[in-house]
Amino acid sequence: MSRSMAGGAKPKKMGKTIKQFLAVLSRWRFQILAALILSITSTICGVFGPKILGDMTNVAVESFQGAVIGNDGHVPPSDVLVAAIDWGKIGNLALILIGLYLASAALSYIEGVIFARVSAHYAQKTREEIIEKIARLPIAYFDRNQIGDTISRINNDVDMVSNTLANMLTQMMSAVTTLVGIFIMMTTISVSLSMLALIVIPLSLVFVAMTAKKAQKYFRTQQRTLGALNSIIEEDFSGQTLIKVNTHEPQVIQEFMGANQKLCESSWRAQFFSALAFPITNIFTNLNYVIICVVGGGMAIDGKLLIGSVQAFIQYVSQFNRPITEVSQISSNLQQALAAAERIFEFLDEPEEAPDPVDALMVPKVRGEVEFNHVDFGYHKNETTIQDFSIKIEPGMEVAIVGPTGAGKTTMINLLMRFYDPTAGYIAIDGVPTREMRRADVRKMFGMVLQDTWLFSGTIEENLKYGNSKATFEDIVKAAKACHVHHFIESLPKGYKTEITEDSDNISAGEKQLLTIVRAMVANPPMMILDEATSNVDTRTEQLIQEAFQKLTKGRTSFIIAHRLSTIRNADLIIVMKEGKIMEQGKHEELLEKKGFYAELYNSQFAKGK
């Protein structure tokens, strides 16, 4: 059970991801603009606080100085000093300060609510885009990619970006507006001290950029490894029966441990480098704070600044350094979010199925004539699975396709359903090339019963109506009786209303197969495809199903892929394939008389029974 890990992929540049992310956010530009205005207003309300506190200190100091001067330079008693303070002016300033702080808090709360809504709608919209993208992806994508990795993009990556989005935008906007607002207020107190305070910004930004570049590599690896780990978990969970039968538990655990160890290593390295930004930035800001205190204290002693102004400036410096520190703190989440966003955009940028022709042709009433005309096809470049395949099938024929594993039987069906298109030649239905039709129109012509049964969570009735939502209950019962499954359904606790679990583990494999056959009959398509449709039923049930198939395929073109050659003896045409080519074709008796490849296959299955 070997599975490739996506975590070792070469890191890509963040520029494209950031540009795409900003383009996505433009959908909510008015909400973000409103939040920006609120953030600026909230910051303006908040940045006046230290200035007003400084003014209050200056009022008190001036009152003390006036009392001393009025007492011939002698310090009067404390009660006289307290009485001398202009409490009315200080009270008015205090009320203004309280009002500004309350307004700042209210505006900040509204801003947070707006961003929370933007974040929630982003997650909703992105998941919708991913689901819509899945519908447009070619089957080739699902053949080469793991389910768990795609699920990880839908859940883990979208959640990572969404959860970070609200906090990140709020903090980033608040940080920028706070820096600008506080710097303006600082310049009103002292331009020279303000220039000194600016020194910390380039130092911090340079270091944050250095650590962010290093950490981003590991955050990207972390997200990719998480997707690969989810694929391992999903595969191990669904394959437990096979794992236990083959006593493969030690190997499975070892493989999981290896992937988990890789995730652990990439996670701690990412956190280590991103966490470096905060302590180093904090050192710069604290050193800057000390310098400001020393220089500002000297200016107060020299009489160049009032003591209240120095107090206000020191408070501003403390607030000025906080956004810088916050940016370094959120850089870790920001890098994780960008790594997750990159994986989302990678998925959304995956090549889609070629668009249907604008003037697509239609087959008004399907007769069922199918022609393969010199068809070539390979799943990969320089590889040929089907080579120069030509055959014409008349309406109503029952065509069996047989051959060894890898002969190209399933590939023929994939081409017929337009899951893939031929690299050369063409396929036509009733004379109309399928490439010139809409894919949906081609696929509606066929009903399929596959070897791998698939039923979704819901009632049996809902499952049976999956291919024909307009089918009545009577239509369903009629099809069930034709497949000899009605009695089984009626024996269940709730009959046709019985709920099927997610993995359909409350019914047997054979019963699942029977239900998929009924579903195909209910759909009532013009043509049928049966891919080992009786592989999971016993011999007696197989005979009953064969009778039902005779009714189902009567008058319809049908294709049957079969390894059990007993099921195709009555086919109108048997196509024997080997290495993507037609080796023989004809009816059962004709092919046996030829004593060729088909006779060899047939005798290998039934010689012992003769």
Describe this structure in words.
With 610 residues, this protein is of the alpha/beta class. Helix content is 63%, strand content 10%. The protein is built from 21 helices and 12 strands. It has helices at residues 14-25, 29-70, 78-84, 87-136, 139-144, 147-189, 191-197, 200-238, 240-245, 249-275, 277-301, 307-348, 409-416, 439-444, 460-464, 473-482, 486-490, 509-523, 539-553, 588-594, 597-606; strands spanning 370-377, 386-393, 398-402, 424-429, 432-433, 446-449, 458-459, 499-500, 527-531, 557-561, 573-578, 581-586. The strands form 3 sheets. The chain has a 6-stranded mixed beta sheet with strand order 6-9-10-3-11-12, with helices on both faces. A 4-stranded antiparallel beta sheet has the order 2-1-4-5, with helices on one face. α6 packs antiparallel against α12, α8 packs antiparallel against α10 (249-275) and α8 runs parallel beside α12 (307-348).
Please tally the helical runs, counting DSSP H or I stretches of 4 or more residues.
21
Instruction: Quickly give the structural class.
Output: alpha/beta
Task: Kindly report the spatial arrangement of strands forming the biggest sheet.
Answer: 6-9-10-3-11-12
> Approximately how much helix is present in the residues?
55-70%
Tell me the total number of β-strands. Answer: 12
Strand content: 5-15%
Largest sheet: 6 strands, mixed
Question: Average pLDDT across residues?
Answer: 79
* End-to-end gap: 39 Å
- Described by the principal axes of the CA atoms, the overall outline is elongated
Low-confidence stretches: 1-11
Roughly how many Å is the radius of gyration?
37 Å
